[in-house]
């Protein structure tokens, strides 16, 4: 089913649940991995994915189709993941740097963390980046999104995104070159 078909079926109340199930099937895995790269732990990613799709369901009737459906969903997922990190920060009464340090510890000691030493070092390098650079790098490098799509998701200009990506790559190379 194409996005337009899903949207049309969702607006017909008899097909709403079926259409939404199809939407979840279409996007759940991509959204999970996008969120997982932000919040790191599997359990947190599952919670944020659930919150994302609840928000999508509640707001799908008002989706204006001014953007692509997947970029709209990615934007919701990104905001939910960042909100989750901010909630962690508030709940623990710590700085965002402390939250990222905790996430880094999860990489090294957490269950459900796969990857060899190089992959773990890359993930740690990503956690050392400023939030915007990390998001742009993840969406461009791992999710293979076009700059135009990332601009739509983040509300940032393509030029600024290219600069953020370039800076992120340089910082990651420096981080990986240490030792």
UniProtKB/TrEMBL annotation:
Record-level GO BP terms: DNA-templated transcription initiation
Pfam family name, one: Sigma70_r2
GO molecular function: DNA binding; sigma factor activity
Name assigned to this protein: RNA polymerase sigma factor
Keyword flag DNA-binding: yes
Annotated InterPro entries: RNA_pol_sigma-70-like, RNA_pol_sigma-70_dom, RNA_pol_sigma70_ECF_CS, RNA_pol_sigma70_r2, RNA_pol_sigma70_r4_t2, RNA_pol_sigma_r2, RNA_pol_sigma_r3/r4-like, WH-like_DNA-bd_sf
Family, per entry: Belongs to the sigma-70 factor family. ECF subfamily.
Keywords: DNA-binding, Sigma factor, Transcription, Transcription regulation
Residue span, RNA polymerase sigma-70 region domain: 23-90
UniProt signal peptide: none
PROSITE patterns in the record: SIGMA70_ECF
Domain RNA polymerase sigma factor 70 region 4 type: 120-172
